[in-house]
Specification:
- This protein is α+β, with helices and mostly antiparallel strands and 146 residues long.
- It has 2 domains: 50 residues; 88 residues, Immunoglobulin-like.
- Helices cover 33% and strands 32% of the residues.
- The chain contains 2 helices and 9 strands, in the order H-E-E-E-E-E-E-E-E-H-E.
- The chain has a 5-stranded mixed sheet with strand order 3-9-8-5-6.
- It starts with a helix and ends with a strand.
- Bound molecules: copper (II) ion.
- The site of copper (II) ion (CU) has 5 residues, from loops.
- The site of copper (II) ion has 5 residues, from loops.
């Protein structure tokens, strides 16, 4: 009885060893290519977390001409970062001044100027063009903070 078990064990071992050898032989040429593509996604995945940092300002485009702004109402939340891109679509020089908060440069026809600010406490802040006579002629708007 013990001898037959031993024989079965040896035959089994030889079969397992043979199978292992066959698998290794067959798999070795195909084994190395999957390993190299795996290494590249791992290294390229490393730089990804850095661009995910985004405390970027929310951009609002405002156009000014003779003599109005578009839009005339800007809604914002307290503490929000806002970037205003003011474009002069008129023929005269204009600017955009949010009174007591921030302002653009006075720019010529077809030009743009951008500025950023942190939205102030709750309230309504008027914005206007500070070129003499322009606000009175209609270059006015409101920044509404909630
Ligand atoms: Cu103006």
């Amino acid at each position: 009885m013990r001898k037959t078990i031993l024989v079965y064990l040896i035959v089994g071992l030889v079969l397992v060893a043979g199978l292992y050898w066959l698998i290794r032989r067959g798999a070795s040429p195909g084994n190395s290519p999957p390993l190299t593509p795996l290494a590249t996604p791992l290294t390229s995945a490393l730089p990804n977390p850095s661009p995910a940092v985004s405390t970027e300002a929310r951009q609002i485009d405002v156009t000014g001409d003779e003599f109005s702004f578009d839009p005339t109402l800007i809604n914002a939340r307290v503490g929000e970062n806002i970037r205003i891109v003011f474009t002069n679509a008129g023929r005269f020089p204009h600017n955009l001044v949010i009174e007591g908060v921030a302002q653009s440069q006075i720019i010529g026809s077809g030009e743009s100027d951008a500025f950023e600010f942190v939205v102030p406490p709750v309230g309504e802040y008027s914005f206007l063009c500070s070129v003499p006579g322009h606000a009175a002629a209609g270059m006015k708007g409101v920044l509404k903070v909630e």
